[in-house]
Structures are given as C-alpha cells and as structure tokens.
Amino acid sequence: MAAPTLLLIDDDAELAELLGDFVARHGYQLTWADRPSAGFARLAAERPALVLLDVMLPEQDGFAVCRGIRAGGDATPVIMLTARGDDLDRILGLRTGADDYLPKPFNPLELVARVDAVL
Fold first, then answer.
1. Which residues contact 50 (CB under 8 A, 6 or more apart)?
2. How far apart are CA 19 and CA 48, in angstroms?
3. pTM for the structure as a whole
4. CB neighbour list of residue 109: distance below 8 Å, 6 or more residues apart
C-alpha cells in the first residue's frame, strides 16, 4: 500500500526538505509547491490525502488559497502551518475552511499527530 501523500504549499525550500524527510519516517510522502498556482495544479493532478498550507505566500495568501480550495468543492483536509499564530489568524484560518491550524515554530511530532488525527 502506498504511503499517503501530503502536499505542502510553502515558499520555504528548506522546510520542505526537512519536513519531507521527517514525514517519510512516519509513513507519509510529501510533495511540495512553492506558490499557490503550483499548489492548485498539484492538488488537481495528484489528489493528496492532506494539504499543509502556509499563510504568507507569493501570488496570494494562504487564507485565499484555502477559500479557493473550498470554493471549488474540494474536501481535502487542510492544516494551516504558518508563522502567523495570533488568535485572530487561527480563527480566520479555521473559518476559511482549514481543518486545523498549527503555528510555526512547531514540534514535528505534533504535526504528525495532527495529520494522523485529521486523516
């Protein structure tokens, strides 16, 4: 059975590399998009099990991306993974359709636990 795929939409290449290695040790495969347009293309083509989404992105912010995912009728779970951790940002993320919201910096074991819980 193939490992479930997580799609990371984040412009931080170093985070993508580190996270890819870490989630692989926990039974997941990570694909990466460095901007929203590439993320939407990967979401449509690859049908990942879950999206990990940053807020501060080129092209448009992650809140708009999440709204776009949901407006298209896509029910793929979304976990916002971002440095914007204020209460209002977390509330906005959840209200735009995210299933969970984890501020950076984060414990990678907590992220895997949240992915497991959402899936």
1. 4, 6, 7, 76, 77, 78, 79, 115, 118, 119
2. 16
3. 0.95
4. none
Residues 6 or more apart whose Cβ sits within 8 Å of residue 38: 9
- Per-10-residue mean pLDDT of the chain, 119 residues long, equals 94 96 97 98 97 96 96 95 90 96 95 98
pLDDT at residue number 37:
97
What 3-state class would DSSP assign to 104?
A: coil
Task: State the average pLDDT for the chain.
Answer: 96
Helix/strand/coil percentages in the chain, nearest 5:
45, 20, 35
Rounded Cα gap, residues 54 and 63, in angstroms: 9
Who contacts 74 (Cβ-Cβ below 8 Å, separation ≥6)?
A: 43
104: tokens are 């950076």
How much is the pLDDT for 84?
A: 84
